[in-house]
Design brief:
Elements lengths: L8 E3 L2 E5 L5 H10 L10 H10 L2 E9 L2 E13 L3 E6 L9 E2 L2 H17 L4 E4 L15 E7 L4 H7 L2 H12 L3 E4 L4 H13 L7 H11 L3 E7 L5 E10 L2 E9 L8 H15 L4 E8 L3 H5 L1
Parallel strand pairs: 5-7, 12-13
Antiparallel strand pairs: 1-2, 2-3, 3-4, 4-5, 4-6, 8-13, 9-10, 10-11, 11-12
Length: about 300
């Protein structure tokens, strides 16, 4: 079986090796300037996934000499429903190679294919934001939503479609308040309740605790409370460079008819505007679902 100390694979003078834990700081420094890098490429996901779910991770580094040209996080997942595969990245909407050259991208994909065969996995899934392997099978069930955050708060308000803007103003008039929480408790209660109502089991609380511990202020629980101080809606967001990505959310049933959720996403956008962020990334949603229609 291939191991981390196995000879590097090469492609057009690019060598590919498996990262060790000591590569984490170097890995994340590269991501800061790599154009197609995302929050899900960060090295901390390796520690979270390995520690919480015990999946084995193979984080690939493509380099030309001593210079890094690309990275590819891979996680081995064995599932009763989905089989045995290498995924970049489970628990994330984005993944695939983060690179600054075509040669590095190709070398990383070749190495990923080699690892898939070596581990006897039955599929390799790369969740690229842009297609890099046009001949591969693709899933068109999901659509990603991204929009610019304007410098002026009112410009962001006016960019919201009229009907949704009316709901945001309704939430403001209702006296909802937003606050950033220092721990995961209130968020998790709302999230788990929401997921249970939809008939699926929630992720364990230790997963969210690990995210908060690993990424610090780049993972942020936003809580929406009503006038009496009761938490009625929440969202856990990821921050990366100049982007914010609301990712996990939850609410009480009573929040649905009170514009609390519309207010929640407006508050997140307003706060992002104040921080000088440029991109509001709604993530991806499956066509024909309620979240797809909302976005």
């Amino acid at each position: 079986m291939l191991e981390t100390e196995s000879p590097p694979r090469t492609s057009t003078s690019i060598a590919v090796r498996v990262a060790s834990d000591s590569d984490g700081a170097l890995w994340d420094r590269f991501l800061l300037t790599c154009p197609n890098a995302t929050f899900f490429h960060r090295f901390g996901w390796k520690r979270v996934i390995e520690n919480v779910y015990r999946h084995r991770a193979y984080y690939l580094v493509a380099h030309r000499g001593s210079e890094i040209e690309g990275l590819l996080p891979l996680v081995q997942v064995k599932s009763f429903l989905f089989g045995h595969g290498l995924v970049s990245l489970p628990f994330g909407v984005y993944g695939g190679p983060a690179s600054i050259s075509v040669a590095a991208t190709n070398a990383l994909i070749e190495a990923a294919i080699a690892w898939t065969r070596e581990l006897d996995a039955n599929h390799l899934e790369l969740r690229n934001r842009q297609s890099v392997c046009p001949s591969w099978p693709r899933q068109d069930l999901y659509v990603s939503f991204r929009r610019e955050i304007f410098e002026e708060e009112e410009a962001n308000m006016l960019a919201i479609p009229r009907k949704q803007r009316a709901m945001v103003r309704k939430g403001i008039k209702a006296g909802f308040r937003s606050e950033i929480d220092g721990d995961i408790e209130r968020f998790y209660q709302l999230y788990a309740d929401n997921v249970h109502r939809h008939g699926t089991p929630p992720f364990p609380k230790r997963f969210f605790e690990a995210l908060l511990a690993e990424f610090g202020t780049d993972v942020e629980p936003l809580i929406i409370s009503n006038e009496s101080g009761t938490a009625v809606s929440s969202v856990l967001s990821f921050y990366f460079r100049n982007e914010v990505l609301p990712y996990y959310a939850g609410d009480q049933v009573l929040a649905r008819g009170t514009a609390a959720n519309d207010f929640k996403y407006w508050e997140l956008m307003r706060r992002a505007c104040q921080r000088g962020l440029k991109i509001f990334d709604y993530g991806r949603s499956k066509r024909g679902t309620g979240s797809f229609d909302f976005k």
